[in-house]
C-alpha cells in the first residue's frame, strides 16, 4: 500500500520569498540536501513539465549507503505544478538498481501565509518502500530547517 509522509514548519518570511527558494537553482542546492549530504543540480528546466536532476552526496558514505552508488543518491525531479506563491508539486524518481527505491514519489510543497510568516507543509505520496518513514520524515524536517535558515537570513528586517 502506498505510504504518505509529512512534515511542516513555520518560516519567518513571506510566501513569495519561500516560493522563490523552491524554484531557484542555487537556492535548492543550498538548502534542499538534508543534514549529512550536499547536493548538485546537473540539469535545470524550471517550468511545469520541466524539472531537474540532483545528485546528493553523503558526507560520510560509510554509515549511509546511497541508492544510486555507494555514496550518492541521484534523483530526477519533474515539476508538475508551479502555483506562485502557494504550491510546488514535484515527481521524483531515484536512479537505483534496487527495486525497493523504484517508482515515482510525489512531493507537494504547500505554502500558507500566516501570522509570523509562512507555514510550509510537505506531503510525500508514493514513497518507495526502501525509504524508511522515520528517516524520510527526519530528512524532510532537516530540509525544512535548512530552507528556514536560508530564507530567514535573506528576509528584509523591519526597523526597530
- The mean pLDDT is 90
Return the CATH architecture of the domain at 4-34 and 77-152: 2-Layer Sandwich
Q: What structural category arises from helix and sheet content? A: alpha+beta
Shape: globular
Domain Activator of Hsp90 ATPase homologue 1/2-like C-terminal: 12-152
Pfam family, one: AHSA1
Protein name: SRPBCC family protein
InterPro entries: ASHA1/2-like_C (IPR013538), START-like_dom_sf (IPR023393)
Task: Describe this entry's structure for a reader.
With 160 residues, the protein is an alpha+beta fold. It has a domain at 4-34 and 77-152: Alpha-D-Glucose-1,6-Bisphosphate, Chain A, domain 4 (2-Layer Sandwich). Helix content is 22%, strand content 40%. The chain has three helices and seven strands. A seven-stranded antiparallel β-sheet has the order 1-7-6-5-4-3-2, with helices on one face. The radius of gyration is 15 Å and the shape is globular. The protein starts with a strand and ends in an 8-residue tail after the last helix. Residues 12-152 form the Activator of Hsp90 ATPase homologue 1/2-like C-terminal domain. This is SRPBCC family protein. Belongs to the AHA1 family. InterPro entries: ASHA1/2-like_C, START-like_dom_sf.
Amino acid at each position: 500500500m502506498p505510504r504518505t509522509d509529512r512534515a511542516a514548519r513555520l518560516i519567518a518570511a513571506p510566501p513569495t520569498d519561500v516560493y522563490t527558494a523552491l524554484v531557484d537553482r542555487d537556492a535548492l542546492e543550498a538548502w534542499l540536501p538534508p543534514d549529512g549530504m550536499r547536493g548538485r543540480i546537473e540539469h535545470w528546466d524550471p517550468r511545469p513539465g520541466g524539472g531537474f536532476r540532483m545528485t546528493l552526496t553523503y558526507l560520510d558514505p560509510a554509515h549511509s549507503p546511497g541508492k544510486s552508488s555507494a555514496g550518492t543518491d541521484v534523483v530526477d525531479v519533474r515539476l508538475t505544478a508551479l502555483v506562485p506563491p502557494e504550491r510546488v508539486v514535484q515527481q521524483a524518481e531515484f536512479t537505483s538498481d534496487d527495486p525497493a527505491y523504484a517508482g515515482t514519489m510525489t512531493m507537494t510543497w504547500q505554502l500558507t501565509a500566516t501570522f509570523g510568516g509562512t507555514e510550509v507543509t510537505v506531503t510525500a505520496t508514493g514513497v518507495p518502500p526502501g525509504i524508511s518513514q522515520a528517516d524520510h520524515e527526519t530528512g524532510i524536517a532537516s530540509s525544512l530547517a535548512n530552507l528556514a535558515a536560508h530564507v530567514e537570513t535573506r528576509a528584509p528586517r523591519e526597523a526597530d
